[in-house]
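Tutorial, part two.
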Amino acid sequence: MSNMSKPQLSFEFFPPKNDKQQESFEASCRHLAALEPEYMSVTFGAGGSTRPRTFDTVRSIIDATGVPTAPHISCMSENIDSIRRLLDDYRDHGVDRLVVLRGDRPSGGGTGVFDYAVDLVQFIRQEYGDRFHIEVACYPEHHPESKSPDSDLEHFRAKVAAGADGAITQYFFGAESYFRFVDDARALGVNVPIVPGIMPITNYSGLARFSRMCGAEIPLWIAKRIETWERDEKMESLRQFGEEVVTRLCQQLLEGGAPGIHFYTLNRSAPSVALCRNLGLCRLDDAARRNIA
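Running the prediction step on this input gives:
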């Protein structure tokens, strides 16, 4: 591993929709909090559809674990006053970190108060100064709506120039795409930490669906194996293979100088805990690991 003594860990959750999801979410939060992450994050639904649940989820994580928690803040809001009220509420509840995104457009189309995340970053800095630490998104492979890789990089550079403190990448499965992106960003003068976002491999259908939506490429050699094992119901083979592939990817990233790892948990703790254990980042004892669902 690199000479970093403690790579930054963070975990992303989505707001649970029902009692069953709530129970699983709470257990996952407890398990992952034991790994002493720098922060957790909570997603924001398309068109702002989960805003109340995002707010409640952020508060529940902080109250239950004490781990700093960063809500996703989206441009998809009905007006500027509603964004200001939301930010005021987070500030008043002790939230000091945000993940600022343009956000997914609602299924019926439409736009938000701001056209791009850079506009929202500028607004937050103008209204709140340095009150919030701001993370933004970046795309080592390709944003599905961008015109070119150069356009992606320019949008990223603009968000940092507007006041972003750091960035989380979309997930990917080739370390070379991350390192190339970082080199290209540094050449443009972008010097903030760029933390790779990592998606554990647990099934094919869900991963393929997410990847189509966000523009992440699943290498053919990975796709064929997990598709076959899922179809043949060889789930343990799929789990072992996915864990091995993603562990190797994370090792390459950390050894190459990545400042940490941001795990897209899908509200499940076991895959992320296994990866952290393999990377030497897991502080859970054997009894605690056996109790992880």
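Residues 235-255 form the longest helix (21 residues). In part three we will examine how such features are distributed along the chain.
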